[in-house]
Amino acid sequence: MEDVTRAVEAILFASEEPLSVEAIEGHVGENLAVEGAVKEALGALAEHYEGRGIELVERGGRWHFQTAPDLSHHLRREREEPRRLSRAATETLAIIAYHEPVTRAEIEAIRGVQISKGTLDVLMEAEWVRTAGRRETPGRPLQYATTREFLTHFGLGSRRNLPGIDDLKAAGLLDPLDEEALQLELESDETLASEDEED
User: Fold this and answer.
1) Long-range contacts made by residues 62-69, C-beta under 8 angstroms, separation at least 24?
2) Which residue of 28, 78, 90, 153 has the lowest C-beta tally within 10 Å?
3) What are the record keywords, sorted (predicted)?
4) Which residues have CB under 8 Å from 38's CB, separation 6+?
5) Domain 2-69, CATH among 3.40.50.720, 3.40.50.300, 1.10.10.10, 3.90.180.10
6) pLDDT tens digit string along 120-135?
7) pLDDT given at position 177
């Protein structure tokens, strides 16, 4: 009888779903599954586990182990869902990281499409983007920049550690059209910077 009890215990422990007596008998095999032996083993196991951290219970004709109800509060864990950014949010975050401080109009000009307010809200809720004052131009638009949390999350010591064109190419993250556009943009930024220095 001890062999039957051990076999039933192992079968139920390993099972991903509750099992009927017939299903357990099928697993135990003809040698051990003499008439009534599995039912007797289930009764003995239920008694053995009574009052312990896990219990053997029967629900709707099927048997399974479960956590003792009075201990369930110990097993609750807060799980942080991984953030999945939309393509628009990913592009917006990249633009802010490489061009900060940057206004909404500048982000839209670089992306070539308008961004919804929700896109910036998602990035701000994630604490990866913050407002960085207002631009001293007509309308005084808000500027956006990345946060320390952004650097921490992406394992960057500072914005200087952001990957450059060569790094992006090596990682296969830049197709030829993107590369050409990025190169033109960087050249344009350099031209504007040198013009500002001359003024």
Assistant:
1) 62/17, 62/18, 62/19, 62/20, 63/12, 63/18, 63/19, 63/20, 63/21, 63/24, 64/12, 64/15, 64/17, 64/18, 64/19, 65/12, 65/13
2) 78
3) Cell cycle, Cell division, Chromosome partition, Cytoplasm
4) 4, 8, 21, 24, 25, 28
5) 1.10.10.10
6) 888 999 889 999 999 8
7) 46
Q: What is the CA radius of gyration of the chain?
A: 31
Q: What is the pLDDT of residues 7-21, one digit of tens each?
A: 999 999 999 888 999
Q: List pLDDT tens digits, range 167-186.
A: 666 655 555 545 555 555 55
C-alpha triplet 32, 33, 37: angle, nearest 5°:
100
Strand (E) or helix (H) holding 57: strand 54-59
Instruction: Report the top-level CATH class of 81-162.
Output: mainly alpha
Residues above pLDDT 70, as percent of the chain: 76
Residue boundaries of the structural domains of the chain: 2-69, 81-162, 164-199
Span 101-119, pLDDT tens digits: 999 999 998 888 888 878 8
Q: Is 38:24 a contact under the CB 8 Å cutoff? A: yes
